[in-house]
Amino acid sequence: MSNDHERLKMTRLQGLRPEQSANSPQRLNAVRDLFNRSAPFYDQVNEVFSLRSGAWYRRFCLRRAGLRPGAQVVDIGVGTGLLAREALSLTGDPRSVIGIDISEAMLAIAHKNLGIPLVQCAAEALPLKPAIADFVTMGYALRHVADLEVVLREACRILQPGGRIVLLEVGAPRFWINRMLATAYVGGLLPLLSLLLTRKRGARTLMRYHWDTIANIMPREAIVRVMTESGFSRVKCESYFDLFQCYVGDKPSAAQPNA
Ligand SMILES: C[S@@+](CC[C@H](N)C(=O)[O-])C[C@H]1O[C@@H](n2cnc3c(N)ncnc32)[C@H](O)[C@@H]1O
Fold this sequence. Notes:
Elements: H1 3-9, H2 25-50, H3 54-64, E1 73-76, H4 82-91, E2 97-101, H5 104-114, E3 118-120, E4 133-139, H6 148-158, E5 159-170, H7 176-198, H8 201-215, H9 220-229, E6 233-240, E7 244-250
Parallel strand pairs: 1-2, 1-4, 2-3, 4-5
Antiparallel strand pairs: 5-7, 6-7
Helix pairs in contact: 2-5, 2-7, 2-8, 3-4, 7-8
Bound molecules: S-adenosylmethionine.
């Protein structure tokens, strides 16, 4: 396993003790607790973070990846349903999107907002049959999983041959000026704004945790490599504003070798 991969697995997690940083049930529980506590203000904080462009951007990436009516989607790390909502707007059928999450509080909001089928489980062990999806989507959950390769192999298993994975993430900018701006905005101003807007200290903790995971995420090339090693072909990454990344890869069809 590469050092980059090790680095992602060991990504610092605010509020977690060192022994919880590895791929352990305690780590999963700690992430679940964090999102359970964040659920009531997740959408509000997200609006501030994305300057209200989140819905547009999520739909843009899904449409660009080829999501169309008739496709069956599994959305891993569905949260309150922000990405699933945009997937639904493209497929047009409430039964066409299944949401997966470990946090019951996030799922409760997704249920209220969208009424789609939801499953509470870890992305590392999906209780779903093989080859049931045309698309697997994952919005901003990659940073939080303990072992990306295990999650990607699960995603590949539930995809039909020829199916597609779409991963949205936020990663630390590469150019120093962008990095400086992102550190000031996402790492400094946003936690403060979140506290002022929601009047909940948990909102500030959530934003600090997000910046911590963003600043320590593995490099883009390493994510592309792990995707390829997990069974995906034609993997590519598009980056927007040096901050937002959209990764797309295909499960090879029977006739197509994994290239
Ligand atoms: C930042 S939220 C993203 C929500 C949504 N996808 C969006 O676009 O806003 C990440 C979600 O991933 C979930 N999550 C984190 N680790 C997970 C895991 N190992 N298995 C399943 N869900 C997980 C969290 O509970 C949380 O709801």
